[in-house]
Write the structure tokens for this entry.
Amino acid sequence: MPTPTKGPRVGGGPAHERLILANLATSLFEHDKITTTEAKAKRLRPLAERLITFAKRGDLHARRRVLTVVRDKGVVHRLFAEIAPDMAAREGGYTRITKIGARKGDNAPMVVIELVREPLSAKKATVKEAEAATKRAAKQNESKQAAAETKAAEDAEKAETTEATEAAAVELPEGAVAANEDGSAPEGYTVKGNADSGKYHEPDGQWYDQTIAEFWFKTAEDAEKAGFTKAGAGS
Amino acid sequence: MAVPKRKMSRSNTRSRRANWKATPTTLTTCPQCGAAAQPHIACPSCGTYKGRHYAVAERTEHQA
């Protein structure tokens, strides 16, 4: 059994119904906005939206399909040339039905059915944009990650080489400890070693206070063993 | 064809019709002009609905 048509029947027969709906669609595309009864508007909406979908496709075949319903070529031209471009960003929901109360006389509920030709609302546009942006970001992330991986590998190599050189420079002599980060003396170590000059300073030395110690020794003997000379001894 | 055997009494008729009651129309206030308007229907006094204006929705005093 064929699925019955959704919505109320209009007119005196199937042919009459087709005529009424075709005339309504023609008027809608001609004037953008028509006032009719709620029952007719609700039958018109799916038909009109399908015709707009054809118009968005825009080829000759679609135009001929529309012409089987809307017989007026001028109206069809308006639909394809003016209405369809406005609907390009919209995915369905091309028409809007607004109730305007009952008609005097037969109390029929009346509506205004209109084409939604204004651009997508700012909110919807932003939502769409955001979705597109996330898509783009995801794509970029992938490429970025790949780039980052190669970069990280390079960095690691670099780091290894620098570490090696540093280690050579700050190699600890025997019996010495590296200075604390803030330059203070490690506990129990009182003799300062200056790596630049190769000299050590005892606490009672002349330059003890101004010396920046790279190494700390427990005693002067340890420093001498490590190859440091006593500051002021040579001169 | 089946036909009623007896005339329906005035009492029966009236008691049936006594249950035909009118219900008050649901009304809201129009956010635009503050007049009473039916929900989901454009305001009959100023013709606006959801910020859009519909001139055909406007009704004068004796039209309503």
User: Anything to note?
Assistant: Chain A touches chain B at residues 35, 98-101, 104, 110, 112 (CB under 8 Å).
